[in-house]
Specification:
356 residues, alpha+beta, five-stranded antiparallel sheet, five-stranded mixed sheet, 20% strand, globular, binds iron/sulfur cluster
């Protein structure tokens, strides 16, 4: 019987035992790579070995029937080796170029699109959502599925000025990182406190320390230890909800969705940047989020028409300027878009007294 792999509590497992043998043999010794068509990458090693990678989109959260189906395709049409990318695409590696087209056909026949490489709109990276996290204000996976259904053509074709990375984050803490277009939950009301539960459930000093604007104070309510929020100070960030669920901030009406643009992690051509708010207060409208899709598609269409080759979203905006961005996309610009954190030192919670 094969020896079972021991569980690893932290960190990624060693990839070498699961890697395609051609990749193991030529690890770090590649002479060049190219992009023969959308969704396909070609690498040649110094030894002359060749390998093709076929990238397919998935639904991100998959049942085991789907995963078995994807694995069967790898066994039947590939070399039996796959890997999942950070954006939930699945990549098949094959050492024989003749296998590429039958593999693409097998994937397409089962409904998996091939694309997401080079200057396409890659699959949306999203945060864990309801499946793994306890504080989401929306279903990030649902937003991803609904949006990628609408952006199917932009995934399978390479027609954008440069690559486009999208992300969704299901709370304002945004473990999703930076993206060309980011879809982020936006709370618009301070938390509602269930005072009967606070003393039993929450570690009050930790909750007080969490608040970035020092809006939370310990308080006695109806003779019980609880907390109170200075609602004038509260910026509705939701950071108090994870350590103290009785401070409920998710709300079907008042938890909205905001769109941010121009972030990137890459330092190619220009330095990495933070994304910036361009649309706020969009309804959190499951299951298809049409208002969010409309804004995202509007931004993508304007970027596609107006961006020069190789300009990432932020390079395009830097060239035309933010006023032109709002004019061209038709998005309204309001006073809520302006916050450069110049007052951050005074506004933010900088007190050493409430750090634990
Ligand atoms: S974005 Fe927020 S709610 Fe979503 S997984 Fe990350 S921390 Fe959890
Ligand atoms: S942590 Fe955020 S939501 Fe909670 S009281 Fe402070 S500012 Fe408001």
């Amino acid at each position: 019987m094969a020896e079972l792999r021991q569980p690893i509590e932290s960190g990624a497992p060693d990839p070498m035992p699961y890697m395609h043998p051609v990749m193991v043999k030529n690890y770090g010794k590649w002479s060049f790579h190219s992009h023969p068509k959308p969704g396909v990458l070609y690498h040649r090693a110094e030894s002359g070995d060749e390998i093709w990678t076929v990238k397919a989109g998935t639904a991100r959260q998959m049942d085991h029937y789907t995963i078995r189906e994807l694995a069967d395709i790898a066994d039947q049409y590939g070399d039996g080796f796959v890997r999942f990318t950070a954006r939930s695409n699945i990549e098949y590696m094959v050492a024989d170029g003749a296998k590429v087209e039958p593999l693409i056909k097998a994937l397409n026949d089962k409904g998996y699109p091939i694309g997401g490489t080079a200057n396409s709109v890659s699959m949306i990276a999203h945060t864990q959502g309801w499946l793994h996290c306890d504080i989401p204000g929306t279903d990030a996976s649902g937003v991803v599925k609904a949006l990628m259904d609408e952006l199917y053509d932009d995934f399978v074709k390479c027609e954008m000025p440069n690559r486009v990375k999208l992300s969704t984050s299901c709370c304002e803490i945004n473990c999703g990182g930076q993206a060309d277009i980011a879809i982020i939950v936006q709370h618009t009301k301070p938390p509602k406190i269930n005072h009967d539960l606070v003393a039993n459930v929450c570690e009050r000093p930790s909750v007080v320390a969490r608040c970035p604007v020092a809006a939370i104070r310990p308080a006695l309510v109806n003779g019980k230890p609880s907390l109170e929020v200075d609602e004038k100070k509260c910026i509705c960030c939701g950071a108090c909800f994870p350590p103290c669920p009785p401070m409920q901030i998710n709300d079907p009406e008042h938890s909205k969705i905001a769109i941010w643009v121009g972030g990137k992690n890459s330092n190619a051509r220009s330095k990495p940047t933070f994304h910036k708010l361009v649309a706020a207060g969009l309804p959190n409208n499951a299951p298809r989020w049409p208002e969010v899709a409309e804004v995202v598609k509007k931004i993508l269409a304007t970027y596609k028409a107006d961006g020069k080759p190789w300009e990432r979203m932020i390079d395009w905006i830097d060239r035309i300027g933010w006023p032109a961005f709002f004019e061209k996309t038709g998005l309204p610009f309001t006073k809520y878009h302006i916050d450069n954190w110049r007052g951050g030192r005074a506004n933010l919670n900088a007190s050493a007294h409430i750090r634990f």
